[in-house]
Amino acid sequence: MAPSGERILEVRDLVKHFPLTQGIVLKRQIGAIKAVDGVSFDLHRGETLGVVGESGCGKSTLAKLLMALERPTSGGVTINGQDMTKARGAELKRMRRNIQMVMQDPYTSLNPRMTVGDIIGEPFEIHTDVAPKGDRRRKVQELLEVVGLNPEHINRYPHQFSGGQRQRIGIARGLALQPEIIICDEPVSALDVSIQAQVMNLLERLQEEFNLAYIFIAHDLSVVRHISDRVAVMYLGKIVELGKDEAIYERSAHPYTQALLSAVPVPDPEGRESRERIILQGDPPSPADPPSGCRFRTRCWKAQDICAEQEPLLEVRAGGHLSACHFAEAHDVIHA
Ligand SMILES: Nc1ncnc2c1ncn2[C@@H]1O[C@H](COP(=O)(O)OP(=O)(O)O)[C@@H](O)[C@H]1O
Ligand SMILES: [Mg+2]
User: Fold this and answer.
1) Domain limits at 214?
2) Domain annotation covers residue 164
3) Where is the ABC transporter domain (predicted)?
4) 16 alpha carbon to ligand 2 midpoint, in Å?
5) What distance in angstroms lies between residue 236's CA and the mean position of ligand 2's atoms?
6) How many CB atoms lie within 10 A of CB 45?
7) What's the farthest any 2 CA atoms get from each other in the chain?
8) CA atoms lying within 13 Å on the CB side of residue 58
9) pLDDT tens for residues 62-97?
10) pTM to 2 decimals?
11) Quick check: CB of 55 below 6 Å from ligand 1?
């Protein structure tokens, strides 16, 4: 796979604040949950961008904003030069065809009362111009084949498939409208480790075959390592580090990324190096009340006064990629 460099998705200063209310009958807004709080990045044709961060940092909200399943509080999402956040009606429907999602949990995301054929073919019911009615069954069978399932099983129900097979059904559905972008929201987190590699291999093969761009969400850096061209690390609604795969894994400059990396088992072929382990203290703060300045400072061993006073911008720092840390320095993850 060779990303062409052509930008197909531009995300600019994207914000999603959910109202925080009090009272059961008369809901008063007492604040906001800052689920996504100023996220910007580009995605290129055929590229995989890994998005990594702890649970609750806003990954799924970001995915829903990109799919236009949620309206942003502010900011823009542009697909092939067209602003999706401003699109309505038929125009939005057409744009949505181009960006599809594979969900986290194949056990709950497939309707148990629908046959696999109906699940995979459902997008054709919504986008009726993609496949004429008489063609749909054949198309669904072809999709089953593409994801490595038996096309003769078209009339079976989700419970008749294993977890890995169900995720293949979800992937087939995502492919039905021939999108250019697929958002994979923790697609293997709910699967057995032995099955994860098969699904990852399938996603990689499909990417080559159809020149797909992926946004691949995970809570663990080890999952996205193999598949990503670039990686974005999120913390409390913001991207704190963004760079080429090897930059993030070998020259990470942000303490949060370094902490995540130190939790990842890395094979050490020479067997002579031991790694510094960084144990993060406590849980992330609430996105309803993030710390002033740098949001990571309350758990950061490098924090100084400036970190509480001034928000570090995501800019090119030591290491040559984007980091949002006042004290960013390239850091060899492996120590002698
Ligand atoms: N519809 C919603 N209403 C209110 N809060 C929400 C909603 N969806 C998500 N959140 C909150 O936004 C934050 C980010 O959630 P989410 O995007 O699901 O994170 P992740 O996918 O990284 O685990 C969490 O604090 C979550 O509770
Ligand atoms: Mg999530």
Assistant:
1) 7-21+30-98+179-253+318-327
2) no
3) 9-261
4) 15
5) 13
6) 18
7) 67
8) 31
9) 999 999 999 999 999 999 999 999 999 999 999 999
10) 0.93
11) yes
